[in-house]
Write a structure and sequence with these properties.
Blueprint: E1 4-6, H1 10-18, H2 23-30, H3 43-46, E2 53-58, E3 66-73, E4 77-85, H4 94-110, E5 114-120, H5 124-132, E6 136-137, E7 146-152
Parallel strand pairs: 4-5
Antiparallel strand pairs: 1-2, 2-3, 3-4, 5-7, 6-7
Amino acid sequence: MNPQLRIPVASDYDTIASWIHDSISCARWAGPLLRFPFVSHELPELLMVPNSSSFSMAQGNGVPLGFGQFWPRGERAVHLGRIIVSPHKRGRGYGKKLCSLLIAEALSATNAEVITLRVYRDNVSAFSIYSNLGFLIVESESNEEVFAMEARANSAL
């Protein structure tokens, strides 16, 4: 397995859209501002966060295996978000690979000291990946539904 990150192309958004089947999965992936149903070719604009960077993970120019974004969060942090792996590829290590690649790219692009993310408490697989990558729960920013997590740049990966 040697997938890499690349800038998403239009057809990637069609594939990613096919992974989202209802309003609940849409909100859990992209947050409450992205309404379901959506039009796949509008995803680049719908997912825009100021100063964000979006990436597909794929083998070369192949069909995306995953997708994720990052954006600055204050002066010393970068936030990972909208991380998703193809439902057909889950449980095979692609989630950890995607997160590792996103972290490396985010740190290279921002020189951040801290990486943050949020994960639903019931998403045991994602929580396990993030914990294994060095993320710790930030109780003061967590709620009943979601854990806020962060990792120091020198301890992630």
